């Protein structure tokens, strides 16, 4: 992760309003929290400590970046706090923007709205904390949008790890208890009148229990 001075940060954040001319009909959004000690994976940190939780999050981001590079789409990384010019998200492969909004729903709504207004036919957001997510599943979601209005990847915790749509469905982003096990249920209720495809259910990693059965994550804890 590159370390920016305040001057560099200001210049980097100017990139947030850059217009990127679409080079594909598809856009892939990745929301990322800037990986700072004590500010990410807090539920996990309560069990394994802030340092280990940060390393787990960086590992998950690396996985997300790796699989995203395989996707035939314009790729956008939306940062939570500041845009990093030199980090694992190679600027030649990922366009960089800032998240805007008072809650997760508003931030996702603004990102989808912005990219759909740019002319993309299909826009998708994926989570950045799933080792079970792969490029084939993301490509399947884009394919399923041909015959469906919305595609969702359900998460085991009652949320979702993937959301894709061709037009903006405003209700999906409103009146949700974000971060709870009711998000998927309430989202499906909003989409009763839409043609919807559900992908297979996956596990996202937010707690120690979520990560215990992944051999590649055992190096990050010793308890």
From TrEMBL:
InterPro entries reported in the protein's UniProt record: Nucleotide-diphossugar_trans, Trfase_1_rSAM/seldom-assoc
UniProt cross-references to Pfam families, sorted A to Z: DUF2064
Xref: NCBIfam families: glyco_like_cofC
Protein name: Glycosyltransferase
Species name: Gelidibacter sediminis
């Amino acid at each position: 992760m590159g370390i920016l001075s305040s001057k560099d940060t200001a210049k980097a954040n100017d990139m947030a309003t850059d217009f990127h001319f679409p080079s594909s009909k598809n856009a892939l959004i990745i929301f990322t929290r800037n990986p700072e000690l004590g500010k990410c994976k807090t539920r996990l940190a309560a069990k394994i400590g802030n340092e280990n939780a940060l390393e787990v999050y960086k590992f998950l981001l690396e996985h997300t970046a790796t699989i995203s590079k395989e996707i035939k789409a314009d790729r956008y990384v939306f940062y939570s706090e500041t845009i990093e010019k030199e980090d694992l998200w190679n600027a030649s492969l990922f366009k960089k923007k800032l998240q805007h909004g008072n809650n997760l729903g508003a931030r996702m709504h603004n990102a989808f709205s912005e990219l759909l207004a740019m002319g993309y036919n299909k826009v998708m957001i994926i989570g950045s904390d799933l080792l079970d997510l792969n490029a084939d599943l993301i490509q399947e979601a884009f394919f399923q949008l041909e015959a469906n209005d919305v595609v969702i990847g359900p998460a085991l915790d009652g949320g979702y790890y993937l959301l894709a749509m061709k037009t903006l469905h405003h209700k999906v982003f409103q009146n949700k208890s974000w971060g709870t096990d009711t998000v998927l249920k309430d989202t499906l209720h909003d989409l009763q009148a839409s043609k919807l495809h559900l992908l297979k259910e996956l596990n996202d990693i937010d707690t120690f229990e979520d990560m215990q059965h992944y051999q590649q994550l055992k190096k990050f804890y010793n308890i």
